[in-house]
Amino acid sequence: xxxxxxxxxxxxxxxxxxxxxxxxxxxxxxxxxxxxxxxxxxxxxxxxxxxxxxxxxxxxxxxxxxxxxxxxxxxxxxxxxxxxxxxxxxxxxxxxxxxxxxxxxxxxxxxxxxxxxxxxxxxxxxxxxxxxxxxxxxxxxxxxxxxxxxxxxxxxxxxxxxxxxxxxxxxxxxxxxxxxxxxxxxxxxxxxxx
Length: 194
Fold this sequence. Notes:
Blueprint: H1 2-33, H2 44-67, H3 81-96, H4 124-139, H5 143-180
Helix pairs in contact: 1-2, 1-3, 1-4, 2-5, 3-4, 4-5
């Protein structure tokens, strides 16, 4: 009984993630600006975007397989971290406002957001995504969810280091470089360029 409740809770958290951290900002941007903030990045950006999507699909699959008792749990782990990731994502997306996008269009220039949560972390949205994935894996600790966490970490690292940072460096130059000296890549104080 408990297993099913926890797996359902993980799926509900995942559904809230899709609703609040993906669909809501896409719809808000469409209503405010008249366009969908979904960019098909060229080249390796497509691969990284597909990897991120696949990672979240595997997170969901892990919870579904756990619900049906089709995978063995790794062991009892704390589950509170999943809930902490979603508010972090939503607040960071709201701070980005019109600069928020899914994907990078190399020909587009958005404002560089360095305030709010971005004062401490250059990527609080991705930090929240990883926290949510880890939290779901803690809620339904099975091999599929652990693999999903690994996929998300790899996808986020590739997205940030290979796609977004080179774009931001090219578009914003010294302003971006100066920001990287004071704001951690994912966590405050960690990954600065000082």
